[in-house]
Amino acid sequence: MTKQVTKLTAALALALASLVLLVATAVAAPAASPTALTVTTSPQLDAHGHPLAGQYLLVATLKTSGGQAVANQPVSFYEQVQFVGKVRDALIGTATTDSDGTATMTYQPTVTGDHALLARSTGSAQYAQSQATSTLPVNLAVSPFPVTTEPLAAVRTALSLAVLLVVLAVWAFLIGLAVRAVVGIRSGATAAQPAAWGATFPEEYRGEEARIEASR
Length: 216
Description:
The protein is an alpha+beta fold. 38% of the residues lie in helices and 32% in strands.
């Protein structure tokens, strides 16, 4: 009986010590600082400052509630799309904030219209999670897979045209032969017709025919 009481007491003491340690740790750990995230969009520019067709720059800025920039924090960009009757977040990509608290990413939509964007910081033990939304109007969409011309496309086109011309020439030659054959057959048939009766008999027969007619 005494041993059982001793074991129970030890177990209760261990549980109490664990609870005290947990509470002390929670009290000692500082709470994550609240943050504010903003997201803006603009046309993507080339090295000469000219807009790139169909490309846009997504900019997310992460700051504390006091306005201090938050660096080295991952920010994920999403497009909110309708899928199977629900709005879902399609990941565009993830970037890390710099010393100014800014994370940037280039986006190239494949369809025109208004695109609902979402930027979200994942948060950390020091900084709380935050998110922001924006709408990107797209008037020009460019496919991410450019149309390329096959190296031998021109040769293949020229070869096809040459084959077509040869076939047409052969058909024209055969039709010409057929026409000439038909004309030759008709000419031969006309020449083979018998001459008139008077032209086919010799002169003496024609004289005899005249005497017979006179005697009548």
